[in-house]
Amino acid sequence: MEAMNNDIMVEVKDLKMYFPITRGLLRKKIGDVKAVDEISFQIKKNETLGLVGESGCGKTTAGRCILRLYNPTSGSIIFNGEDISTMPERKLKERRSNMGVIFQDPFGSLNPRQSAGNIVGDPLKVHKMATGQELKNRVADLFKLVGLDTSMMDRVPHEFSGGQRQRIGVARALACSPSLVVCDEPISALDVSIQAQIINLLEDLQAKLGLTYLFIAHDLAVVQHISDRVAVMYLGRIMEITDSTELYENPMHPYTKALLSAIPIPDPKAERTRQRIVLRGEVPSPVMPPPGCHFHPRCSMAIADCSAARPPLRDVGNGHFVACIRV
Amino acid sequence: MESVLDVENLKTYFKTEYGLVKAVDGVSFNVNQGEIIGLVGESGCGKSVSILSVMQLIQTPGEIIDGKIILDGQDLRKYKYNSPEMRAIRGSKMTMIFQEPMTSLNPVLTICRQLTEALELHLDMDRQAARERAIELLRMVGVPDAPSRIDDYPHQFSGGMRQRVMIAMALSCNPKIIFADEPTTAVDVTTQAQLLELMKDLVTQHHASLVIVTHNLGVVARYAQRIYVMYAGRIIESGLSEDIFERPQHPYTVGLLHSVPKLGERHGARKLIPIEGLPPNLINMPPTCAFLPRCTYKVDRCEKEPWPVLRAVGGQHYIACYADIKGK
């Protein structure tokens, strides 16, 4: 594993991100929100890795750690062969031009007082990659790339529809020609008929520009459609990671199975015949996660050993990893 | 089957400074006893406004311009929105479950106070009896440890639990019909599955009817017997659940079904077919079909004639479209 592997763009090793909870005048630490609890995975070049899970499972935190928007508590993030988890800020800035991010909320993530052209061109200015006419040309190219009319460059965000605004977000993420783009729920805030437009755009751009995506979403059907491989997170940990087709055809972790069965599919016949696993209870708090396997209190297959120790993410063949001692 | 709710040619317009918004423009639907109905459409299509109109909860600048709303034989349009008659019906005979349980529960009142309000008001229960009934209701919707949790405040409940409280509230006075406006949009999928299953069971037990308003086609596929699809303030297709999902005939419904990825489809097996363009601006709508600019099946008639009315295409299946796209 230590040997340099040229196919790997990002390697995350034992990543931990704890947010301290403080109380009182002296801000005494009384606990941690264990948002990401020692996770490891790799993102290969030119692939899409999907990261799914319910709200609060740590998927967004994991994505932000990879961009070093948070300083991880421990663990390493190797990006293009370099560990960026503790890299000093100035050096990191150079690496950042190689990373892009698309946020969920196309309303909140664009400055309402800036023109669309300025928003898209900003990363180029920050990284001193273009000025003057060159900057303008580059922004116009980006507009065309994401399917926006270049005549709209001087408009401000509220003049655009939700789908167009998300296109501005995509153009901004691609401004510095990054190799990795973290897409954090890029379509959740959009109308159903618009979602497909953005998914197709992301797919086309990946093919055209050879991008690598970390695609974070809660909708397993969308993630499965766009991703080569999918990692399923639950309460700060990765439960299962495998090829996206394999995940659907042969899910092994009890949580993955429950998640798959809970997703409503628009087909009444299939819906009425398929078995639904309705999980008991709710997701426990990440401040005091259950001992051993985080899923065991809600798992129908749990045995005494499940609460004893954390199950390792083990290889069950063909790049299929599962963190469960019962499969 | 006995009809509980009949809505005919409902029109609700909003007078804004930019022009007249025809949010609901001639919507007709009916709900039979014990039936689960799906009302599907994208944001801004008028699905919520239709339901709010039936509840007479439309605020200025909105106004119900025209239409009949018959609930259980009673013509609701005879009553003013704030009349004692309307207030006696709202919250008892017909109730509503809102999308966002945090903003629709009062944060400074205990769950008990909020649950018992309707019981005391509509069923004339005294405080003690109402409290006992409230505990029973909480237990029924699966809130663990109901007797002690009843004195908690909404912020002490999780999102899923809050939505259970909303369901308990909606059921408290044995309503004839419950409207659920995007009841599971704010919660996670596994919680969504729990809540939908719960709603279905309770509605069946109480012989009530349920109207689920949603943008998620998957949610209604499992539970709804009949579905109405809305676009730009009108119903453009209606029918049995099987009709809509297996034999959709309106280009919009077809487009909607093609544009969502299906679970289990192989990665890279197919490109999604999006509906191009944008949903229309409801101000100054053209007289022709509102879906025309985005439609890939249009025929000559579409450009010349006004928005088509619903026509039967077999059984209970209706579409508002000139084109015949069967088999295409």
Task: Show the helix and strand layout.
The complex is a heterodimer of chains A (327) and B (328).
Chain A: E1 8-23, E2 28-44, E3 48-52, H1 59-66, E4 74-79, E5 82-83, H2 89-96, E6 99-102, H3 116-126, H4 132-145, H5 162-174, E7 180-184, H6 192-209, E8 212-217, H7 220-226, E9 229-234, E10 237-243, H8 244-249, H9 254-262, H10 268-273, E11 314-315, E12 321-322
Parallel strand pairs in A: 3-8, 3-9, 6-7, 7-8
Antiparallel strand pairs in A: 1-2, 1-4, 4-5, 9-10, 10-12, 11-12
Chain B: E1 3-16, E2 19-32, E3 36-40, H1 47-54, E4 62-71, E5 74-75, H2 84-89, E6 94-97, H3 101-104, H4 111-123, H5 127-140, H6 146-149, H7 159-171, E7 177-181, H8 189-205, E8 209-214, H9 217-223, E9 226-231, E10 234-240, H10 241-246, H11 251-259, H12 300-304, E11 311-312, E12 318-319
Parallel strand pairs in B: 3-8, 3-9, 6-7, 7-8
Antiparallel strand pairs in B: 1-2, 1-4, 4-5, 9-10, 10-12, 11-12
Helix pairs in contact in B: 4-5, 5-7, 7-8
Mean pLDDT of chain A: 91
Q: Taking strands numbered 1, 2, ... along the chain, how are they ordered across the largest sheet of chain B?
A: 6-7-8-3-9-10-12-11
What summary fits the major beta sheet of chain B? 8 strands, mixed
Q: What is the radius of gyration of chain B computed over CA atoms, rounded to a whole number of angstroms?
A: 21 Å
> So what's the overall shape of chain A?
globular
Helix content of chain B: 25-40%
Helices and strands of chain A, in order, run as EEEHEEHEHHHEHEHEEHHHEE
Count up the helices of chain B.
Answer: 12
Structural class of chain B: alpha/beta
The level-1 CATH class of the largest domain in chain A: Alpha Beta
The chain-level mean pLDDT of chain B equals 90
Count of discrete structural domains of chain A: 2
Described by the principal axes of the CA atoms, the overall outline of chain B is globular
Class computed from helices, strands and strand pairing of chain A: alpha/beta
Distance between the termini of chain B: 35 Å
**What's the CATH first level of the largest domain in chain B?**
Alpha Beta
Largest interface: A-B, 46 and 45 residues
